[in-house]
Fold this sequence. Notes:
The complex is a heterodimer. Chain A is mostly helical. Chain A is about 80% helix and about 0% strand. Chain A is built from 8 helices and no strands. In chain A, helix 1 crosses helix 4, helix 1 packs antiparallel against helix 7 and helix 4 packs across helix 6. Chain B has a single domain, classed as MetI-like fold (Orthogonal Bundle), CATH 1.10.3720.10. Chain A: It is found in: Cell inner membrane; Cell membrane.
Amino acid sequence: MLWDWGYTWEILPVLAGAAIVTIEATLVGFVIAALLGLAFAILRMSPSAWVRLPVGGLVEFIRSTPLLIQIFFLFFVFPKFGVTLSAFTAGFLALGLHYSTYCSEVYRAGLENIPKGQWEASIALNLSPWVTFRDIIIPQAIPPVVPALGNYLVALFKETPLLSAIAVLELMQTAKILGSENFRYTEPMTLVGIFFLLLSLISAAGIRQVERWLKNRRG
Amino acid sequence: MGVRQTTILVILSFVAGLVVASFAGFREFIPGLLEGAWVTVRITVQGCLLAVVMAVIAGIAKMYGPWPLRWLAVCYIEVFRGTSALVQLFWLFFVLPHFGVFLEPMTVAVVGLGLNVGAYGAEVVRGAIQAVPRGQWEASTALNLTRMQALRRIILPQALVAMIPPWGNLFIELLKSTAIVSLITIGDLAFRAQQMNQTTLKTVQIFSIVLVMYLAISMVITLLMRLLERRAAAGLSRGRVS
């Protein structure tokens, strides 16, 4: 038999439990990516080349090397320096770090779109750089790039199966274990695929909604 | 970055790589890792070729095909963009044999990654074709070219220039995703690294070399795409040519 419904109903609750771990890793990872990305973007605008160039190099380096190797790096190499991370922590840190570099490019586009006059006006009003960023620049730069950030949230979500490589019990790892216990991979793997497809399509629709709302709001 | 800066960066990093490789702590790992890197490069090149073919077919089918083809193209694009590359690879690797289709792991890797990136590429192809001004289509009609002729001779050569930079990004994405083929037992760079890590426990050296190797391959891709961009844009008096 190609598809066993009894087995499907039996494994569905187990997979649903694992899906929660996947979603947790996605959300924690994305919070790190969003915050760190903003920090990278602002540091790359620094007037000092001593800050700008190393940060730029680091971002390019993280962006052009595979996430899987970065996960291994955090999980296997950091303990050598005395920092032992649990598999889950190493996993969401690596996801967050990797996607922060993508987010920083998104923020950079947003920040570069702010008219020069806004900066000049802030200087004329004697605002400190910190206040300028917090009250003038960031509130204008972030809303237009929210849809682009949303796309990276979905992309990050789709990379979470990589955490199975360091044995985090997320969806993929659970499906693999179920498959090898019962010698039936068809149902768990297909269910995992459907789960990702459904959530990606729903979030893509959500992002389009946000995009439309932003467009209307700006008028 | 222009072609010259990229070339200088590539050469500098290779020199730096050679210097690092000559240190005793690193030397023992280099030959084994280079073998893995060769597998990674092969999968990347073949995957990229498949991705381009799939993207052009799916992109054009989605825009101009009759409705069954269009529907098929939309399904392909949504399914492969909506699920993870790893899930797709595992599906091809574990589930297809269940339906009587047995593929070599290498084939699974190339097909899986090629189809995955091809789905993203289809949208790139579509965007680039749509960005060609309408007047070009109208002029082709006026010159009595068939739709196929117009697409092949007039529209695609112009769309190609706009496609190259996003394809460069996609090729680098593909290179980075090749690391996951180590999870379906292929002896690529990531697999060798893990294997050596388990036998020697010299984690820091091994993973540092591996990261640098991936960086080097991705820089070569960037350089090649810059050269291609310059070459493709040569005939068109549009945009900035650096």
